[in-house]
Amino acid sequence: MWRWLVVASLALLGACNVVLTKDPLFKPADAAGAPTLRPGVWLLFLQPDCRVDTRKPFVEWPDCAGGALVGDGEIAGHKSGAPPDALERAKVVLAAGDPRIAQLPVDIDTGAGASASASGGASASASVNGGGHAQPYGYLGVRPIKLDPEGRIVAFDYWPVACGPPPPKDKNGADVAAGTLHPLPGMDMKPGDPICSTTSKAALRAAAKASEAWADKPLPQARWLRDGTR
Questions:
Q1: SS3 assignment, position 149
Q2: pLDDT 10s per residue in the chain (230 long)?
Q3: Distance between CA 197 and CA 120 in Å, rounded?
Q4: What's the predicted TM-score (pTM) here?
Q5: How many CA atoms lie within 13 A of 124 on its CB side?
Q6: Strand, helix or coil at 203?
Q7: Under 8 Å between Cβ of 160 and 214
């Protein structure tokens, strides 16, 4: 199960055909010189047919709407059923470049019988088997679509960074494999694994650029709503 941050930031994607790394590839310095996210309350995703009054505090929103508090290099969210003041916080780096890449820590439970490599490369492969638990770093391609008068990002499209092109479908329309059959250059992926890893920023950025074409359309969009903490 992805925790709230992954639900919000990866738009309800499962842990399939996505890049995860054991250690972060980017540091805060990698965001230098590029527009930052405007601090305040954000709507990160909205499921189809979701009815939500975004004027209310985001801790009161239904699970079909992903609200978060964005700060300086940090995103805070609220777990369903938790006390209103119980926010979960995570450090996020929005690396500069084309495309922008968001790096965030994620929790993933691979479930019984699954295997997920979340390593810093082949020599440091860390697999989770038989219902294990790991906390790697996940990545999103980010395309800013609106800036405020001060040059801060107030809306952006985003998509998961994939290991390679999606696997083909069988005659019933199901994927023939959990992950790609053709990992992109620089991606470390064991046969049969649903995820991959890399130690190369250049490989990750190339994957982020290619992945935009494979992402479901329309791309999910996040937007700033207001100043404040609720």
A1: coil
A2: 234 444 444 433 456 899 999 999 999 999 999 999 999 999 998 888 999 999 999 999 998 888 999 998 889 887 777 787 778 888 999 999 999 999 988 865 443 333 333 333 332 233 322 344 457 899 999 999 999 999 999 999 999 999 999 999 999 988 888 899 999 999 999 988 999 999 999 999 999 999 999 998 999 899 999 999 88
A3: 7
A4: 0.84
A5: 11
A6: helix
A7: no
Interatomic CA distance for residues 184 and 163, integer angstroms: 6
For residue 42, count other CB atoms closer than 10 A to its CB. Answer: 24
CB within 8 Å of 195: residues ≥ 6 apart: 15, 16, 17, 18, 19, 20, 116, 117, 118, 163, 179, 189
Task: List the beta strands (DSSP E) in the chain.
Answer: 18-21, 40-46, 65-71, 74-78, 87-91, 93-95, 100-105, 108-109, 115-117, 127-129, 133-134, 137-147, 153-160, 195-196, 221-226
